[in-house]
Amino acid sequence: MAAQPLPSAEPAACRVLGLRERKKQRTRDALVSAAHRLFLSHGYGRTTIDEIAAEVDVSPRTFFRYFANKEEVALAVLADAEDYFVATLRERPASENPLQALRSSIVLAWRDLSDTGTSDTGVTAALELIQLIEETPTLLAAHLRRITDQERLIAELIARREGLDPSVDLRPRVLAAVFGGVLRSAHLAWSSDHSAPGPEGMIAVIESHFDQLGPALAGDWR
Questions:
Q1: How far apart are CA 64 and CA 77, in angstroms?
Q2: Considering the chain, what percentage of its residues have pLDDT values greater than 90?
Q3: For residue 47, what are the domain limits?
Q4: Threshold 0.85, pTM exceeds
Q5: At residue 138, does pLDDT exceed 60?
Q6: When comparing pLDDT for 13 and 56, which is higher?
Q7: Vertex 131, ends 125 and 137: CA angle to 5°?
Q8: Same domain as 121, residue 25
Q9: Tally of CA atoms within 13 A in the half-sphere of 6 that contains its CB
Q10: In the predicted model, what is the mean pLDDT of residues 166-186?
């Protein structure tokens, strides 16, 4: 009788790797959720890394396997949302002009995240975090640094999408800066206008700001 081939070890190894990755993701999500709850209830400055770790029943050493510092865990909700936005932008059809692609991507990202996120890690947490950032100078400074990094990434994506060299053609960088400014203005307007609550309120504010971009740049103000 012919020898039967030995079963491959690859599927089992993949399953083990998948279990490990899922466990790591659950721990990371738990740390983000715990940090978010503590920041909202006790304040960012009065919350310690030890308290965040204790909420999840892990050691501070484990915390630092996932996050470099308290700022990083605080901004993780928005960082994840920004990553999803960038992934969405990469998938936009080539027929859209760059501004249309950016606008469609940010609206779609907010809608998708509002459908899939939990209260501690999804769009509700992102909305709460936007308000917390504006009230916390340390977080605001870190957030503005992230915005600068994201503008650079968006400029590179737009340049690649349009087949341009961003070191020669300034349009991708200018558009990324304009997009970031419009988005930040919308976030600030939403934070101060409690008549537009929730994700749909935020989307409406973002849409209204983009509606005014053309008139603001090229319209006759008088």
A1: 17
A2: 58
A3: 11-68
A4: no
A5: yes
A6: 56
A7: 120
A8: no
A9: 3
A10: 93
